[in-house]
């Protein structure tokens, strides 16, 4: 079996370390985005719950820039539910991405452990 030069091994090691670092950063960002969207979704759920408890004849207003526009209640509920579904889809996609990045990070860490475990001992 042919052995690799020290320079080649160093390059491989650096590449694996960079992959691990980038995967960890991306994983952290993905988790933060998921948490933010989860908070936003929860606020929408609470808003929808509050709106459904109001009488049908109550006027609904939606912020448009610095002004407010009257919106039918059904339209308001549909818009909020659409936003909630969109956020749920985003959260689902971010969770899938996080699982992929976590696997990528764990694989890189495993490769690093294998390299150091099998490295020749110098005395």
UniProtKB/TrEMBL annotation:
CC annotations in GO: cytoplasm; prefoldin complex
Pfam families for the chain: Prefoldin_2
Coiled coil: 73-111
Keywords, sorted A to Z: Chaperone, Coiled coil
Molecular function terms from GO: protein folding chaperone; unfolded protein binding
Top-level taxon: Eukaryota
UniProt xrefs under Gene3D superfamilies: 1.10.287.370
Family statement: Belongs to the prefoldin subunit beta family.
Record-given protein name: Prefoldin subunit 1
